[in-house]
Amino acid sequence: MTIASPEPEFAAPDAAARPLWLVPQGDDGPLWPEGVETGFAAASGFAARPGQLCLLPGPDGVGGALFGIGKPATPADRPARERFTLARAAEALPAGAWRIEGAPASYDLIHGALGWLFAQYRFARYKTAEPPKARLVCPESVDRDAALAMAAGEYLARDLINTPAADMGPAELEAAARALADRHGAAVEVISGAALAEGYPMIHAVGRAAGPGRAPRLIDLRFPGAGPAVTLVGKGVCFDTGGLDIKPSSSMGLMKKDMGGAANVLGLAETLARMGRAGGLRVLIPAVENSVGSDSFRPGDVLTSRKGLTVEVNNTDAEGRLVLADALALAAEEAPAVLISMATLTGAARVALGPDLPPFFCDDEAAAEALHGAGRDHADPIWRLPFWEPYEAMIEPAIADLDNAPSGGFAGAITAALFLRRFTEGAGTYAHFDIYGWQPAAAPGRPKGGVGQGMRAILNALPALTDRATGAR
Question: Which domains does the chain have, with CATH numbers?
Answer without folding.
Answer: 18-142 (3.40.220.10), 150-470 (3.40.630.10)
